[in-house]
């Protein structure tokens, strides 16, 4: 699992590359727990190269979502592969989280 | 075809289990989504066994055998750790998990929704989890 960050003004783009399972999700949890992340107004998660997610990976997003919402920070997923999106859908998470098709759409939503 | 694998109880070995399942299923021409779902269900059970039943103790191990008969896949996963108590299992309320910031507890829900049948058996010797999925 490789996690890289890119900053654009008040937006942080987190790119996930690899597989998010019970072992690698610890890294993601650390990244999202960094106090600095609360200084951005938008968190965009680029899932193009996220090839797999298990409940441990979903659990990391589930556990941080309310904190971001309370701080009015938008969390937006984009470029998600169908098989990964399907895992969100099995639990109904696609209705509780914002998942859009591409970067342009993510930026449009983020600017609303 | 090799249909059995044994790994020691560390989270790093989950990748090996997923690769093993993927390789076994490669000949069945499953869709990407179905293949991923099956691999995920097995991964969730193995993660639970490694982390909760065996406390990530690398001196312990879990084993899995895969068979297919008349289009029904069967995964038989065994270990010697603490048995899963199905009677104590409660379906998660995801919105509540979000509200309280809960990290875990949605893995078995995924398994139950993906697989056609999920069984847990325990005797003095070992615990067995049986997963069934119709693919044809």
TrEMBL record, chain A:
Q: Taxonomically, which superkingdom? A: Bacteria
| InterPro entries (alphabetical) | Anti-sigma_ant, STAS_dom, STAS_dom_sf
Q: Where is the STAS domain?
A: 1-110
What Pfam families does the record tag this protein with? STAS
Q: Name one GO molecular function term.
A: anti-sigma factor antagonist activity
* Family according to the record: Belongs to the anti-sigma-factor antagonist family.
Q: What is the name attached to this protein's record?
A: Anti-sigma factor antagonist
Q: What is the lineage of its organism?
A: Bacteria, Pseudomonadati, Bacteroidota, Cytophagia, Cytophagales
